[in-house]
Amino acid sequence: MNSLKDLRRVVNHASLGRFRFYVQLFSFVLLIYGGYLAINVGNQLPTFACLYSDLHGGACYLLGFQHQMATPWSQLFGGRGLAILIGLATFVAFFVVFNKAWCGFICPLGTLQDWLSSLRRKLNIRAAGYSEPVFQRLSKIKYVLLALLILIPMAIGNSFFGLPKLGHDWGVPFCMICPGRTILPLFTGDFSQLAIDFSSLAKLTLTALGLAITGLLIIGSLFKPRFFCLFCPMSALHYIFSRTGLLRLTKNGAKCTRCGNCFRACDMGIRAIADDLESKNIVKDDCMMCGKCIEVCPEDGCLQAKVLSLPVYESTAEGFFKRMNRKNNG
Amino acid sequence: MNRPVLLFASLLALLLLPGVAKSAVAGELDHLRLTLAPPATATTEAEAGDEEECLEGHADHGGGRGGREVQLESEHRPVPRRTYHLNHYRRGAEVNAYVRRPDGAVIEPELILGASPRVSFSTPPGDGPTHGAHNVYVVERGVEDEVLQVRVAKWITMHHSCRWGHNGKFDPELTNPQSLDTIPFEIVVDDLWNRNFHAAVTSGDNLRITVLSYGEPVAGAEVTLTSEQGWRKTVTSDEQGVAHIQLVRDYYPSLWQDFRRSHRGPFEVSARWQADKSGQFRGQAYSMVSYRATHPWVYSPPVREYSSYGYGLLLAAAMMVVGGAGVYLHRERRRRPYRGIVFDE
Amino acid sequence: MDDELKRRLLKTTRLHLAMEGEETLQRLREFSERPAAMEYFYTLFHQLANGAGPAAMAGERKIIATMCMQVPQELILAVGAHPLRLCSGANAYDQVGAEFMPAKSCPVIRATLGMLRVNQSLWGDTMAGIVVPTTCDQKKKACEELGDMGYPVYSLEMPAGKESDLARYYWQESVKQFAVDLEKMVGRRLTAAGLRQAIAKVGRAAALFRQLHGLRGNRPPIILGSDLFLVYNAYFFDDIERWSRAVEVLVAELEQRRQNGVRVTNRRAPRLLFTGSPPIFPNFKVPVLVEQSGGIIVVDESCSSTRLLSDSVAYDQASLNDMVPAVADRYLKPCTCPCLTPNQDRLRKLVAMADEFAVDGVVYQAFAGCLPYELERRQVNETLSERGIPMLYVETDYSPEDSGQLSTRVEAFIESIKARKRKQARQQS
């Protein structure tokens, strides 16, 4: 009993940030280079483990999902429909374990952005943030992208309103504009994704957009932490299943002083973490469950990361001061 | 100026295209070939059905799409049973067929001789022992004018679906071409497919071709590459039985709109070799052995034909500059004193 | 003639101040089971009451005086100045102030201005400026008064609310401007390293405060609320590192007490939450009365005490552009000063404190003239009565005249809580 208490104290005093750094590094290596060790975690991962990176140790669900969305409707009620459901179920099963921590701890593109943020700190560039109305508006883009990455493939396999079907070159439209496709293969020495494909109008449009977004991502990450994540359709897809997650982030509004430390720490800039006093489940659609808010919350038990209902990491005054002390003197 | 050349080329192509070619030089036997369609029915059947989509993203992905081309096998569309047609065979000769499966097992496919000679074997779907490249061989042996004529037709069946995953990519046994040392004369071409079992030859590639006889390298064999349009080049294999031939660009759509990145053109590697060996075959004496073998495959246009790093990187750099300047200007503007609200009237 | 008058006024004020201070200290000493570590604070206040100038605390450093806890202390420390909160609780100074201030004004302002007027000669060059945030009306007007007296006043503009983005932005910009002006006032550059160090110093104090805060809620109580008011009052002017060391000793002693079961009052003493206008030494009239009557103040919510160090700065990047806004946020966002509107956070905080510290009742002190606290009485009363927590509302000032009447009310309140507890205990058994 007492040893459990001691263990929890030790955990709560720890720096989650450092732990996260190593988990991110490990996941990055696993997902980008896993192939060298013949590791393949799965092809329905709820994170940007890019398939275009040839020796990936696991693969993002979105590519397969977009492929499947191109299934003609007439075939949906056969084996292919079942395959789609199985794929989705696998995705959800993966997702449920870590919930949105897939973004904060595992996503290689997210990790990359965090590394760019570290570079920004080294260069002493101050972080940018959006004002609340701008944030709210930009936050909706990911749902638009999610809708498009479903509708465009659907229009390849089916005819909408008697319009001609789209060409196959419109396939996997999100992958084509995803900066993960252009950047992650670079780590295995594959530069082929940095080219614009002129073979058809569709490819030209999509690859050009992809490279423009890549440019924006790199420069954006040097100003705004997790620049791309606000627009990520994977994050939108996550949010649909977020309530089923085993890992949870909860807030006890009664203990909150609204000091705003959590909001300041939040790389995503989620206002609700500081201002929402009602919600117990505080995982918002943009949340990546990085736990930075828990680290900077000085109120005992106000913010908690839980597995089901068991707190695994929670905010404590003692832990807060320990961490700040390390930061101030380190 | 171009027209006669083109005409000549197409004539040559007509002669050489698998299935329609007849014996070109009198006295010499033609190559033995395996084709997808029976030689009599022309080879312009359109593809039916939908391409199975691939989960593995690759620039060279999407084989055989397009419909107007010669029917080709796609490594993205697994079928439970494979049938390949033989262009012809000589009555009286001994004909055998073998299939080397990816797991190394050698099976004898169903061989039907007669009016429409063909081989047939099953390729059960799923990521099992049959997932990967099957080497299909038809070996014909017979003595003619005291010469033992050995003709081998080879075909590689890539039995794969991206749905089964790409775990095979970590197995060199599966990613490298395999040969069979019971085959009297065999052509092995490297790097025909990539680690994900997708056809990977593009025009401009320098093909490394090895000629083997019962698994041993053959020096001095004539290796010929014949392209879709009938261009051909012959080289002689070296001590290691290796010959290098660069595949020329052979795909010239007149309009850019007609260009298909997924275009697949057939080409054929063939080899001949004569050995001064005497003996008896089926009671007939011979003083010389003549070997010949064929090995067809497909190529696609190379990525560099239709993509540009220059523009790509320029665009990315431009976005970075614009983005950076935007943030910088915004920040500079913020240095000015607080600006009041302006009403939109 | 005028000088002569001033000198006499100063002399009598000093005398009164000393008497007043000694009396409060005497009362504190009369309680049983004093922690030995409190001796540091008694001595400190004894010296202060007997004429030790604030300059003694500052040493060689320049003094940046403040008139409210809203002034970002980290910035002052970062430029190497000594932050000194002027707010006075002395009746002697209040009487000086009453000479030129309206009778209805708040005694804190009156006493502070009185002190500054009568002691003007004391400050000399050491005082680089007086920073007055624009919180309540009285502070705003005090700015002008002080300016007229010839003090270097800096008015730190603060929004009237904290909910909107604009308010936060305004305050951050205001604090940034203050940081820039502070460099000029003190004559030293504000650096990231300096600010980080200052944040560390305040962070250490805040960490100790949290430990103390946790210990004071112990059952049975191991330290008096009045003693803690004194400890936190010392934070007004003491060197922050010296204060931290003294508190560290106190925390260690209290930890020892907790383990040994030493207690300052009987186990069933009503546990009270003190809120409202700040008790500032030597005006510990109400808290001392409460604890003399058998109650124990286990927690408080006032700007001279718990609120000083409740909140802490957390920054992401150790650069001025991130740290200064972080410092600004710590002073505005969690603030529960009634000068802000709306002030729901204060009600939430009171309820949370009442829950956490298992409080039996609330003592609400409002200084006559402190309108914001007087006006919030109704909301607090309603919120507390919804949860069945009784509240004693005391309107008072610095003069000892109402002591008799006060003690009757306080005693009655505590008796009623005791009776209630007895009744509950009987019902349970």
Describe this structure in words.
- The complex is a heterotrimer of chains A (330), B (345) and C (429).
- Chain A is 52% helix and 5% strand.
- Chain A has a 3-stranded antiparallel beta sheet with strand order 2-3-4.
- In chain A, strand 3 (303-307) and strand 4 form a beta hairpin.
- Chain A has 2 domains: 18-237, no CATH class; 247-329, Alpha-Beta Plaits.
- Chain A starts with a helix and ends with a helix.
- Chain A has 330 residues and is mostly helical.
- In chain A, helix 3 runs antiparallel to helix 4, helix 3 (61-69) packs across helix 8 (141-157) and helix 8 (141-157) crosses helix 12.
- Chain B has 345 residues and is of the alpha+beta class.
- Chain B has one domain.
- Helix content of chain B is 13%, strand content 32%.
- Chain B has helices at 2-16, 172-175, 309-334; strands spanning 34-35, 81-86, 94-100, 106-107, 110-112, 118-122, 132-144, 147-159, 186-189, 206-213, 216-217, 222-226, 232-236, 242-246, 265-275, 279-281, 284-286, 288-299, 307-308.
- Residues 4-27 and 42-70 of chain B have low confidence and may be disordered.
- Chain C has 429 residues and is an alpha/beta fold.
- Chain C has one domain (2-428).
- Chain C is 58% helix and 10% strand.
- Chain C has helices at residues 2-30, 39-49, 55-58, 73-78, 91-100, 107-118, 120-123, 137-149, 165-186, 192-216, 225-234, 240-260, 285-292, 306-309, 320-332, 344-356, 371-386, 403-428; strands at residues 63-66, 82-85, 127-133, 153-156, 271-276, 296-301, 361-367, 391-396.
- In chain C, the strands form 2 sheets. A 4-stranded parallel beta sheet of chain C has the order 2-1-3-4, with helices on both faces.
- The model of chain C has no long low-confidence stretch (mean pLDDT 92).
- Chains A and B meet through helix 3, strand 1 and helix 11 of A and strand 19 and helix 3 of B.
Number of helices of chain C: 18
Count of alpha and pi helical runs of chain B: 3
Percent of residues of chain B in helical segments? 10-25%
Shape descriptor of chain C reads: globular
Q: Mind sketching the topology for me?
A:
The complex is a heterotrimer of chains A (330), B (345) and C (429).
Chain A lengths: L1 H12 L2 H18 L27 H9 L9 H20 L2 H6 L1 H15 L9 H7 L2 H17 L15 H5 L1 H5 L12 E2 L3 H21 L11 H9 L5 E5 L9 H5 L6 H4 L16 H4 L7 E5 L2 E5 L2 H13 L1
Helix pairs in contact in A: 3-4, 3-8, 8-12
Chain B lengths: L1 H15 L17 E2 L45 E6 L7 E7 L5 E2 L2 E3 L5 E5 L9 E13 L2 E13 L12 H4 L10 E4 L16 E8 L2 E2 L4 E5 L5 E5 L5 E5 L18 E11 L3 E3 L2 E3 L1 E12 L7 E2 H26 L11
Parallel strand pairs in B: 8-18
Antiparallel strand pairs in B: 1-2, 2-6, 3-4, 3-7, 5-6, 7-8, 9-10, 10-11, 10-14, 12-13, 12-15, 15-18, 16-17
Chain C lengths: L1 H29 L8 H11 L5 H4 L4 E4 L6 H6 L3 E4 L5 H10 L6 H12 L1 H4 L3 E7 L3 H13 L3 E4 L8 H22 L5 H25 L8 H10 L5 H21 L10 E6 L8 H8 L3 E6 L4 H4 L10 H13 L11 H13 L4 E7 L3 H16 L4 E6 L6 H26 L1
Parallel strand pairs in C: 1-2, 1-3, 3-4, 5-6, 5-7, 7-8
Helix pairs in contact in C: 1-2, 1-5, 5-6, 6-8, 9-15, 10-12, 10-15, 13-18
